[in-house]
Amino acid sequence: MKYKISGDNLQLVTLEIDPQEKIYAEAGALVYMSNNMNMEAKMRGGFLKGLGRTIAGETLFLTEFTSVGGTGLVSFGGRAPGTIKPIELDEGKEFLVQKDAFLCAEDSVDMSIAFQKRLGAAFFGGEGFILEKLTGKGTVFIHACGDFVEFDLKPDQVMKVDTGSVVGWDGTVNYDIERVKGIKTMFFGGEGLFLTSLRGPGHVIIQSLDLGNLASALRPFFPRQTSGGSGIRIGL
To answer: Is residue 235 part of a domain?
Structure first.
């Protein structure tokens, strides 16, 4: 399989698929494909795995793509402005990502749900209680808002991040949350009550803008309904 990622903050990944290869993607991620590509909705892993995906924010069915009669092209994109990144997995390696980050993967990659091991991270961390776990051997593509910043943490090296800004991390990274110090900072610093603590070793991916912050920034410009009529606001 060959691939090309194009675009800046509205990225697409285009895959070149040979007849003996198979990929699968989140339902609705398709942008375009060549005429010789075949797609079929599948409940990969059975009903229980499909149900787990819906809990994680994904769809019950995933879409499988195969090429018929030569090499085919298929392209995927995310649901919001952001970045696409390939993750190369080997047997025994585990990579965890925020829910909704999965875009598409080779057939040899398994995507399942994982649960936060620490209650503090589960209830106060920006990623919530449920994560997506990527295992197997092959290439998987993830997508999230904004640009990506990446770190390779050394053993016991700690990086503190705004909750909700962490896209993914190696299974070797310890993920937890901690309370912001100082009453004034907690309530007037604008960063919330908690920060995410990432302790190495392992690789970490951080996004420059999360979807929640993007929605908050756009909310004042949404049309608002009033009791006097349609309430659609024109101008600023």
So the answer is: no
In tens, the pLDDT along 137-185 reads 999 999 999 999 999 999 999 999 887 889 999 999 998 877 665 454 4
Residue 78 burial by Cβ neighbours in a 10 Å radius (0-12, 13-18, 19+): buried
Is residue 66 within 8 A of residue 101, CB to CB? The reply is: no
Number of CB atoms found within 10 A of residue 137's CB: 14
| Sheet with 130-136, edge to edge strand ranges | 109-115, 130-136, 95-98, 166-170, 202-207, 148-153
Residue 19 lies in a domain: yes
CATH number of the domain enclosing 6? 3.60.160.10
Give the domain range for residue 161: 2-215
pTM of the model: 0.81
The DSSP 8-state label assigned to residue 29 in this structure reads: -
Strand extents, DSSP E, 99-182: 102-106, 109-115, 130-136, 138-145, 148-153, 158-162, 166-170, 174-179
